[in-house]
Amino acid sequence: VYHYLVSPLILLIGSNYLQYKLASVVVGGGVVLVTYLTAKEWAGGRGGLIASFVAALSFWTIVWARTGNSQIIIPVWSGLVLWGAERYRRTNKAKPIVIAVLSAAAGLFTYPQSFVLPVVLILLLALTRSWKGVVIAIVGLLPAVFLWGGIVKKNLDN
Hints:
Strand content: under 5%
Low-confidence stretches: none
Shape: globular
Mean pLDDT: 93
Order of helices and strands: HHHHHHH
Number of strands: 0
Helix content: over 70%
Largest sheet: none
């Protein structure tokens, strides 16, 4: 999914090593932005600023954003799932839950570490007693789960 996400940028700026590193840095900036939005939703504006400052200076973000490695997308998906679940719980608006569902679904097709995002989303909504959100998440995730299950079934040896 990461490669599809950065391909429009690569199309605009060119395709060589420096441009791929630049695309990774842009996604790394997305990590800082999503960290801010998520922490702001859970801990207020000051918490968002502190969390994004820590994320911007953290060893993990700096290393992964500089090396051009596609794993930099994992905290973006994770943060959007957490942000969307909490934002939906607070506002009961559709946009946050749609973003959370799409991010959780994308996690199924990104890295093995992020296949738990649909479960995290559903559990988080259930723990906050957002039952309508649980139903929306389950229904929204079903197509992605079936596609992912088909991929796993065809590649059982892996």
